[in-house]
Amino acid sequence: MATTTEHPESIKKWKVIGPGLVAAATGVGAGDLVATLIAGQRYGYALLWAAIVGAIMKIVLVEGVGRYSLSTGHTIYTGWRKLGPWTSWYFAPYIVIWGFVYGAAAMSATAMPLAALFPAIDLKVWAILTGLLGFVLTWVGRYSFFEKLIAVLVGIMFLTVVGIATLSLSHFPEIIGGLVPRVPHSAGVYVLSLAGGVGGTITLAAYGYWCREKGWRSPAWMRVMRLDNSVAYIVTGIFVVAMLILGADLLYSNNIALEKGDKALLGLSNVLADRYGQTIGNIFLIGFWAAAFSSVLGVWNGVSLMFADYIGHLKKLPENDESTRVGGRYYKWYLIWLTFPPMILLFMNKPVAIVLLYGVLGALFMPFLGFTLLLLLNTKATPKEWRNGWFANLMMAVISLAFVAICVNEIIKLF
To answer: What is this structure's pTM?
Structure first.
């Protein structure tokens, strides 16, 4: 089932870009775009540096996932099992509850720009169609097809949003000033969100599974993996920076406030339409849809692989058993769980509790990933040659603490 059979030294550099782009695009969903946009709305360009630090942190974190997988030949879940049964006690209920809540949230977010572009069709209908389309594409499509589809969506979201952000380059001196680290009054939570949270989800842990599906299975692919990961997060980092620039230029400078939640992105399209015309507003909605739908596809594929691996361990199957791979029956079990039960939530009126629960669930996983990577990459679980150096340890410790702070903040908001 491997899609890459060449030796890593024999393939062209542009051909290796794939799993990293999938992980990066999947992690940057509608909620992350809103967080970035609101940071620009409230603080102008002052937190631009935090968005860049966030991209660097994701490069370090995802590189750790890939390094563990390639150096050991094992999946990240196999590594967690080696740390003790407590990891399974945490992971198993988490992935089930998170999938149910995320399924509804992702379908709704992807439906919003479609409902704005085609208002004759109800939002719930678009949400259901989104879920069904994601289900079909990830049920029947092999990894190579899935990767190409994500690349197309990344191209759309990059060209639309970054292209529109270039209209704000007249503020170049202020933008450059945002590269100087500073924390405005009461901006601490937004710094954490940008530096530690944006683009950070359970899908970061899926990177090793996508490397496996790509055919990267040994340390020989380490340099290729690092190039793939770095390029991908630089691309999505530019995308996130573009969102912050739009928020600063269009909202902060004009003292415009948007609605809370994903509807803020619809509000931004209206502001763009007022300033530049309806065509630009619609182009932004297309970029919004591409970003949201790439997250749907990435989760439907990547987290289903993680769940299938978990079931494979429960049943004591060989680690790469076909039933735990793309298209396998355990993979398909989770696809069904992500798609159909969450549709019930689409018919709830303003499910504030569900939205808050989703925020807490997302925040609860990232400290787990950060701290378990620190354990795996500093012990005999990883070959000595590929263990963390001081810089990787420092970065992983900082981002893990940032995730803990974000988690505490989300729990406080819940209660």
So the answer is: 0.89
